Amino acid sequence: MHESDNAQWGLVHAFVLNGQGGARSIARQDLQGLALSEHESLWLHWDRSHPQTHTWLRTGSGLSAFACDLLLEENTRPRLLALPEQQLLLFLRGLNLNPGAEPEDMVSVRIFADAQRAISLRLRPLHATEALVEDLLAGRGPKTSAELILRLAHYLTDKIEHLVGELAEQVDDQEERADALESQAPDHSTLLQIRRRAASLRRFLSPQRDIYGQLTASAQAWLVGADSSYWNELNNRLTRYLEELELSRERVNLLLEAENRRMDERMNHTMYRFGIITGIFLPMSFLTGLLGINVGGIPGSESPHGFLLACSLMAVVALVQWLLFRRLRWI
Questions:
Q1: Which end of the chain is more exposed for a tag (fewer CB within 10 A), N or C?
Q2: How far, in Å, CA of 98 to CA of 49, rounded?
Q3: What does DSSP say about strands 117-122 and 87-94: parallel, antiparallel, or unpaired?
Q4: What is the sign of the dihedral through the CA atoms of 188, 191, 197 and 202?
Q5: 104-143 per-position pLDDT tens digit
Q6: Angle formed by the axes of helices 188-216 and 228-291, to 10°?
Q7: What is d(CA 120, CA 118) in angstroms, rounded to the nearest whole number?
Q8: Do 279 and 286 touch, CB atoms closer than 8 A?
Q9: Which helix (H) or strand (E) holds 164?
Q10: What would the CATH number be for the domain defined by 2-261?
Q11: Boundaries of every domain in the chain
């Protein structure tokens, strides 16, 4: 009931974490004057495109104008910014798994957080937040705002692993197709698409990997604590995915180069055959042209065996050429 009412105000999810893995949903009207106990934390997930989100963020959130401007700016890349009073801004990217969308067209999630509060904004639906809500409703979710951010980053990374593995499998298929003796050539358009998708993923995953590394050594005591090893693990996982993407791009480039060489060899072989055929028929064309001129004195013009003699002469010329080409190892 709360979610349907909250949606009218641009509030997608609103939960108070109970510190034990569960949470209770609250309405937007409950935000004013909401008091949290020591072990509770607040998570608000907003639709960034909704006008009421902008209004609440600037007038009811208590955030500085600087923080609001960054959260609402149009275009952004993954980044981490520490704010005064043990607060931070964290911008991450996740795969776009919405119907009809390209996964590498990544969705941005922008987060303001402190020890007891996490405010996140998205423009398009993000599957990672839905998985997070399921965990909270099942009582196995994050207990603090720091764990909530870590769990969200974990789900974002899991989705990336699946796509990276899918791209690697597509490259494997194209390599098997190229290595098979009787197969067709690799699909050129598929190879170009794989390379483009890998480049698009690297564009956002590389700075996101660096963010995880910064969070490992963050000075925010409430954020890191015992979770620093988990942030380091996410950093290592993204490093591995980036290496896999780079390897996939290199393998695609090698396949494209091999295909270009194969096509060049085919073209050279075809042109070589045309050259041999032209070399064989050029003297014959000269003879037929010479014997076909309309002047007197053409040998055999009066003989009933003239045509047979001309054909025999061209056959002898062709035989001599064939023997010569064989001796020169041209054929």
A1: N
A2: 17
A3: unpaired
A4: negative
A5: 888 889 999 998 999 999 988 888 999 999 999 999 999 9
A6: 160
A7: 6
A8: no
A9: helix 145-179
A10: 3.30.460.20
A11: 2-261, 292-327
